[in-house]
Design a protein that fits this description.
- By secondary structure, the chain is of the alpha/beta class.
- The protein has a single domain (about 15-285), classed as Creatininase (Rossmann fold, 3-Layer(aba) Sandwich), CATH 3.40.50.
- It has helices at about 25-35, 60-75, 105-120, 135-150, 165-170, 175-180, 190-195, 205-210, 215-220, 225-235, 240-255, 260-285, and strands spanning about 40-45, 80, 125-130, 155-160.
- It has a four-stranded parallel β-sheet, with helices on both faces.
C-alpha cells in the first residue's frame, strides 16, 4: 500500500480502498448505496496493455488510471465508485514491440460507450473517464459531445497527466526541466510513478544491457506485424530508424526516475482530478451545464 497523506484516506478517517471498487461490491451493496443516494458519480479508468520499454510492466497504463481513480473516489467516499477498467486501448503503433495488445478505434469507443451506458442505466448520471494511455484520449474526446447528448449525463474525460502543470513537471521530472521531456512514454515520469506505486513492476535495466540486446524496431516489425499495420492504417509500414533512437532515449531518461517524485506527482494529480469530479457532481445536483 502507498503511504502518503495524499493517498488511501478520507479526511482523518481510514477507508478500506476496496470500498470504492465496483467489482469488489455485491449487488446488494450497490443497490442499497444507490437507493440511499450515496453514490453520486462513477469513474471509469481506461488504459492499455502495451510495451513500456525494457523495464516497466505491460499493465502500466491501465493500472495507473485505476489507481488514480481509486484515490479520487476515496477522497469523496462514499460519493464516487470506480468502474471496472478498460485494460486494452487503442495502441496499434506499439504493436511492433512484443506483448502489446490493441483494439480497433471503433471497438474501443464502443466498449467505453457500453460501460457508460450500463452505469447510466443504474441511475448514475455523473461519470468521469480517467485515462492512462495517450492513444485513447482523442478517440474518447471525439465522441464526448455525442455521448453526453445520447446519455443525457454529466460526462467528461481527463488523462491523468494533463492536470500536471509545467511547474509541477519542472519540480518533479528533472528531464523535463533539462530536455522538455514531459511525460514521455516509459521515460522518467512514468517510471517514477510506477516506482512509487508498485516498485515490483519496475525491472532493473542498465544501458549496457539495453545496447547488448541490439534492439531494432524494424526487424521486430515482422511479416505478421506488417499485415496488422496495413489493416489498421491502410498503408505498409516503412521504418525510418527514428523509433530506435526514441526508444533508447526513453530508456536512458528512465534512469533519472525517483519514487519520491513519483509519489508527489500521484498526489498532485489526485488532488486536481478530485476537484474536477467535485465540480461535476455539483453541476449535476444543481442542474447546471457541463462543461462549465
Amino acid at each position: 500500500m502507498i503511504k502518503s497523506k495524499h493517498l488511501f484516506h478520507n479526511a482523518d478517517k481510514y477507508v478500506n480502498p476496496d470500498k470504492v471498487l465496483l467489482w469488489e461490491l455485491t449487488r446488494k451493496e450497490v443497490r442499497e448505496s444507490l437507493e440511499k443516494g450515496s453514490i453520486k458519480a462513477a469513474i471509469l479508468p481506461t488504459g492499455s496493455t502495451e510495451q513500456h520499454n525494457e523495464h516497466l510492466a505491460l499493465c502500466t497504463d491501465f493500472a495507473m488510471a485505476t489507481m488514480i481513480s481509486q484515490q479520487v473516489a476515496l477522497r469523496s467516499y462514499p460519493n464516487a465508485i470506480v468502474s471496472t477498467p478498460c485494460p486494452v486501448g487503442y495502441a496499434p503503433y506499439h504493436m511492433g514491440r512484443k506483448g502489446t495488445l490493441t483494439l480497433r478505434k471503433e471497438t474501443f469507443q464502443a466498449y467505453v460507450f457500453d460501460v457508460l451506458e450500463s452505469l447510466t442505466a443504474h441511475g448514475i448520471n455523473t461519470i468521469l473517464v480517467v485515462n492512462g494511455h495517450a492513444g485513447n484520449h482523442a478517440p474518447i474526446q471525439d465522441m464526448l459531445s455525442n455521448w453526453r447528448t445520447d446519455l443525457g449525463i454529466t460526462l467528461d474525460l481527463v488523462s491523468y497527466w494533463q492536470v500536471l502543470s509545467d511547474e509541477d513537471l519542472n519540480q518533479y521530472v528533472p528531464t523535463h526541466k533539462k530536455y522538455r521531456a514531459g511525460v514521455n512514454h516509459a521515460a522518467e515520469f512514468e517510471t517514477s510513478v510506477v516506482q512509487a506505486a508498485w516498485p515490483e513492476r519496475v525491472r532493473s535495466v542498465n544501458m549496457n544491457e539495453y545496447d547488448d540486446a541490439k534492439l531494432d524496431y524494424d526487424k521486430e516489425a515482422d511479416a505478421s506485424f506488417a499485415k496488422f499495420y496495413i489493416r489498421h492504417f491502410g498503408k505498409p509500414y516503412y521504418g525510418d530508424g527514428n523509433e530506435n533512437i526514441t526508444d533508447r532515449t526513453r530508456q536512458e531518461q528512465a534512469l533519472c526516475s525517483n519514487p519520491e517524485n513519483g509519489l508527489a506527482l500521484i498526489g498532485i494529480a489526485t488532488e486536481k482530478i478530485s476537484k474536477i469530479l467535485d465540480r461535476m457532481i455539483c453541476a449535476s445536483e444543481s442542474g447546471g451545464t457541463w462543461p462549465e
